[in-house]
Structure to design on (462 residues):
């Protein structure tokens, strides 16, 4: 905190806590949406999938609310240095969490197109891949709440596991496509589901970079565990 | 402009012009990268593709520079209302343009994997799809520079053409995969190239929404031409 006045300090703290709470709320919704999308995919629950698509509007509304409050906070409280970095991070992180929700929505939209997917073997790997990716999202948002730069670095280190899942699923799906050309449409949709989950992991590392910068004022260059993005 | 002082006004104007110039520069690099990625894909120019991947670092650096200047501008000039919306839009738009550059990089990374792709018919459709998507990016950044909300709405209306290209290429590639199972890996990579270009169009419409909000203070709800995102 830069302000000397106790009153201003308290007002800023309350405002930034409210921003952090909004980000937590968004993170909870995004994690739930990814988990639900996996459940609907495995159980072929098209009604549940339709609800995920509808519920995504809540994330959009919370992103707008976060931006409105962050901009108001900057305008009214004129935070400096670390406080300002925190507010800017909240603004940017809410945008990334909203995009993570979009991936859940995209997966949910494929559920009705995947009525025969249970027969395609790598589908059994997707929920575990999703679990790791959503855990990364959960932990990186905790790191933001705690302003814990080292926890953010540890989240990045786990992205390799998600990328490895993706590479394995990609190869298995191509083999499945060659052996089952009648099922190629289903396999193509599963390829995109796997890609969406891989992107969730990437977005968790993007948030980790924002958390690191907000907490330290330094960019997380050459962070440990940084891997080239799979094409 | 909210400030009464001519001196403050001039300083803010110079700062925001510098931000706009940075966004333009980023947009130019991103457009060039997409166009080059298409050229390398068609001409199987793996060296050119490697340069695109390297050049993406320029966009990353410009995004950091834009954020640094935007945050400094907010801290030093305390802009209000429309000016503040403009600065926040610049901050967010630079992040989206950086992601558009990432799509070019992702396409470029697939070039060495696509040595036989010239035989796959829909590859001839990709450059035209890329042209429409990059024109959208170009025009929406012009709309930001000009603070032209209506131009932003017109950009959104063109996203349907990109989505239609994607649907057509998706179907054609699936047919090609069924008929040429030995070529399935190449086709799968082209599916992702098409998806990346479809996402460039989506990102142009995301920027359009930011431009609209910055210029009007209203969210572009139920904008004309808004289409459900293809799964």
């Amino acid at each position: 905190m830069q302000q000397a006045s106790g009153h201003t300090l308290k007002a800023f703290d309350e405002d930034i806590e409210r921003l952090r709470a909004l980000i937590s709320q968004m993170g909870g919704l995004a994690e739930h949406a990814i988990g639900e999308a996996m459940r609907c995919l495995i159980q072929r629950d098209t009604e549940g999938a339709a609800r995920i698509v509808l519920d995504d509007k809540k994330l959009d509304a919370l992103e707008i609310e976060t931006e409105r409050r962050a901009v108001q906070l900057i305008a009214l409280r004129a935070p400096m240095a670390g406080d300002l970095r925190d507010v800017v991070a909240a603004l940017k992180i809410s945008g990334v969490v909203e995009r993570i929700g979009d991936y859940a929505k995209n997966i949910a939209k494929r559920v009705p197109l995947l009525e025969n997917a249970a027969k395609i073997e790598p589908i059994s790997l997707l929920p575990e891949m999703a679990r790791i990716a959503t855990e990364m999202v959960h932990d990186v948002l905790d790191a933001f709440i705690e302003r814990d730069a080292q926890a953010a670095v540890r989240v990045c280190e786990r992205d390799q596991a998600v990328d490895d899942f993706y590479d394995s699923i990609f190869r298995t799906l191509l083999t499945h496509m060659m052996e089952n050309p009648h099922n190629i449409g289903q396999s193509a949709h599963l390829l995109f589901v796997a890609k969406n989950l891989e992107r969730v992991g990437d977005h968790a590392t993007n948030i980790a970079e924002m958390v690191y910068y907000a907490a330290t004022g330094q960019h997380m260059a050459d962070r440990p565990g940084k891997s080239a993005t799979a094409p």
Observations:
- Confidence is low (pLDDT under 50) at residues 1-5, 224-230 of chain A.
- Chain A touches chain B through 36 residues (CB under 8 Å).
